[in-house]
Design a protein that fits this description.
The chain is built from 3 helices and 13 strands; from the N terminus they run αββββββββββααβββ. By secondary structure, the protein is mainly β. The chain has one domain (33-204): Sandwich (Protocatechuate 3,4-Dioxygenase, subunit A). Strands 7-6-9-10-11 form a 5-stranded mixed beta sheet. A hairpin with a 4-residue loop joins strand 1 (20-22) and strand 2. The longest helix is centred in the N-terminal third of the chain and has 10 residues, at 8-17. It is globular and about 45 Å long.
Length: 207
């Protein structure tokens, strides 16, 4: 006997059961992940790392920084298969509340109480955390925080993190150069909590 024709609901059920997403030319896993977009390092990466370069940018040695809006910036580093990249290092650097970096190219005008740069190691679960301020603007740029991820001698990512809802984003040449998906990946909300602001920035790298 000839085979019975498949009913439409049977075809639909079969398609749903297949764990792949059709792209038009080839099939790829539905849970395929894209790496976090890279951006320029910029001119103000530290010439030499400060003596105090821990997670807390609000304390530089014995000095406490009291300006700006304190924020817990935290996230994870995972690979394209969603596995934690344990042992990686995350670095951040940013200007102080008045728009100055700890860098000779910025005239040495940064507040000495603001650490300006921090480095932490990623734990077994992939997590990392910094205490800093909501990024401040300076001439020609929207508020942003520079982020770099290293694994041993390898540099896995250099990018910039932006504040969701910040009106200056639309006028920033680097932010406008991103497409919609890249903007979503690099622009995160800074939400108010009981101990100040909190921002979460998950990082995906091809490790």
């Amino acid at each position: 006997m000839p085979p019975k024709p498949l009913h439409r609901r049977h075809v639909t059920a079969a398609l749903i059961a297949v764990p792949f997403a059709w792209t038009g030319l080839h099939a790829e896993p539905a849970d395929a992940r894209r790496p976090t977009p890279a951006q320029t390092e910029g001119p103000f990466y530290p010439v030499s790392l400060p003596g105090d370069s821990d997670f807390d940018l609000l304390r530089n040695g014995g000095l406490a920084y009291g300006r700006g809006q304190p924020v817990w910036l935290e996230g994870s580093v995972t690979d394209l298969a969603a596995r934690p990249v344990a042992g990686a290092q995350v670095e951040i650097w940013q200007c102080d509340e008045t728009g100055h970096y700890h860098h000779p190219g910025d005239g040495g005008r940064a507040d000495p109480a603001f650490q300006g740069f921090g480095r932490v190691s990623v734990g077994a679960g992939g997590g990392w955390r910094f205490r800093t301020i909501r990024p401040a603007p300076y001439s020609g740029r929207t508020p942003h925080i520079h982020v770099k991820v290293r694994l041993g001698q390898r540099e896995l990512l250099t990018t910039q993190l932006y504040v969701a809802g910040e009106p200056r984003n639309e006028r920033d040449f680097l932010w406008r150069a991103l497409d919609a998906e890249q903007r979503r990946a690099l622009t995160v909300p800074f939400e108010r909590t009981s101990d100040g602001l909190r921002a979460a920035f998950p990082i995906v790298v091809a490790a």
